[in-house]
């Protein structure tokens, strides 16, 4: 079996941060704060968060903050959005620096995006998606501000996106997709509402995502992709059905997607690596209890020690 090239992945992540004008940096320009969350969380899972200049990272995150509304943009000077606000809050949680936030303003921004039916818009332009329900709920939970939203309505909206196959989509009636399932199951777990889930039915749909090559796909008839090692497996763990897949075949699939020379992980074997797949590969291996990695929390998508610090200060 291949082994995890941890040190090379650390070097790869640090090098992406330095290269500002190559293809990967340019395509990530509008979601740089998501990239920072993926990269920094990977470093933390590999016990290497101290390789980055914490002050510099936090100062950059705060440059993405909009003090007029309380939201964060994907990069300096970009418009605020829930997707980026969650990443900013997660990065600050990683560094144990949530105290730099005006929690009142940030939670006001997030709660202000809840709609009458309990759903969340991603930003002022109004697109609705269960991804944004997850972002809002995860963010407010980290900030200990769940009382700022109508949790019952938020949960009912998510439940209205449940399909007959046990999965969840973006909006009511939307096709089941593993990414959306993570968002819905993660949000239901955080709000203590998993009793709305038929665990056997959903577990069956999720374990059928394992392909012949050992990797997981996002929905039927699609190719396996390393990122679903996170979206599918975290959901299976939350509903106690992770033993329904072949874990060693999945570990092999992820390890075979590594660039063993330059570091980084790709979506499938022999493809080009990127920070997104490097994060989800390492996070997937962490869920699979691969030796040497910090354990990651399947609902908050943060290392377990960070989540314990948030809720138990230990
Ligand atoms: C903190 C981990 C974390 C997440 C924040 C943004 C978000 C909340 C969740 C995104 C969930 C999602 C929809 C993931 C799927 C991403 C993806 C690879 C989509 C690709 O979709 P298609 O249709 O791919 O191109 P398939 O594999 O179905 O062909």
Automatic annotation (TrEMBL):
EC number: 2.5.1.60
Catalysed transformations (reactions): geranylgeranyl diphosphate + L-cysteinyl-[protein] = S-geranylgeranyl-L-cysteinyl-[protein] + diphosphate
Domain Prenyltransferase alpha-alpha toroid positions: 4-301
GO cellular component: Rab-protein geranylgeranyltransferase complex
UniProt keyword annotation of Secreted present: no
Keywords (A to Z) from UniProt: Metal-binding, Prenyltransferase, Repeat, Transferase, Zinc
Transmembrane stretches, start-end: none
Gene3D superfamilies: 1.50.10.20
MF terms (GO), sorted A to Z: metal ion binding; Rab geranylgeranyltransferase activity
UniProt xrefs under Pfam families: Prenyltrans (PF00432)
Cofactor requirements of the protein: Zn(2+)
Record's keyword annotation contains DNA damage: no
Cofactor: binding details: Binds 1 zinc ion per subunit.
GO BP: gametophyte development; root development
Subunit and partners: Heterotrimer composed of the alpha subunit RGTA, the beta subunit RGTB and REP; within this trimer, RGTA and RGTB form the catalytic component, while REP mediates peptide substrate binding.
Function, in words: Required for male fertility and root tip growth. Catalyzes the transfer of a geranylgeranyl moiety from geranylgeranyl diphosphate to both cysteines of proteins with the C-terminal sequence -XXCC, -XCXC and -CCXX.
Assigned protein family: Belongs to the protein prenyltransferase subunit beta family.
PANTHER family noted in UniProt: GERANYLGERANYL TRANSFERASE TYPE BETA SUBUNIT (PTHR11774), GERANYLGERANYL TRANSFERASE TYPE-2 SUBUNIT BETA (PTHR11774:SF11)
Protein name: Geranylgeranyl transferase type-2 subunit beta
Protein's organism: Dioscorea cayennensis subsp. rotundata (White Guinea yam)
């Amino acid at each position: 079996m291949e082994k995890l090239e941890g040190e090379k992945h650390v070097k790869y992540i640090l090098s992406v941060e330095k290269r500002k004008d190559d293809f990967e940096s340019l395509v990530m320009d509008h979601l740089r704060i998501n990239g920072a969350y993926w990269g920094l969380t990977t470093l933390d899972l590999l016990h290497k968060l101290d390789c980055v200049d914490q002050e510099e990272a936090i100062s950059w995150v705060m440059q993405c903050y909009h003090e007029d509304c309380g939201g964060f943009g994907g990069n300096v000077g970009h418009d605020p959005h829930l997707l980026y606000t969650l990443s900013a809050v997660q990065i600050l949680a990683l560094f144990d620096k949530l105290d730099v936030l005006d929690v009142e303003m940030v939670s006001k921004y997030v709660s202000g995006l809840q709609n009458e039916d309990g759903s969340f818009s991603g930003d002022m332009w109004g697109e609705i998606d269960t991804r944004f329900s997850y972002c809002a709920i995860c963010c407010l939970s980290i900030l200990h501000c769940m009382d700022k939203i109508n949790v019952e309505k938020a949960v009912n909206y998510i439940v209205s996106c449940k399909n007959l196959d046990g999965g969840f989509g973006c909006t009511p009636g939307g096709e089941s997709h593993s990414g959306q399932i993570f968002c819905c199951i993660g949000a239901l777990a955080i709000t203590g509402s998993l009793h709305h889930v038929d665990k056997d039915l959903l577990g069956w749909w999720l374990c059928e995502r394992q392909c012949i090559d050992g990797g997981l796909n996002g929905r039927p008839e699609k190719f396996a992709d390393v990122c679903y090692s996170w979206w599918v497996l975290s959901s299976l763990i939350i509903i106690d059905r992770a033993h329904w897949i072949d874990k060693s075949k999945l570990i092999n699939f992820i390890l075979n997607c590594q660039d063993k020379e330059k570091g980084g992980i790709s979506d499938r074997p022999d493809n080009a690596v990127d920070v997104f797949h490097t994060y989800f590969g390492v996070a997937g291996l962490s869920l699979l209890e691969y030796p040497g990695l910090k354990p990651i929390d399947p609902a908050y998508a943060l290392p377990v020690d960070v989540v314990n610090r948030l809720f138990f200060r230990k």
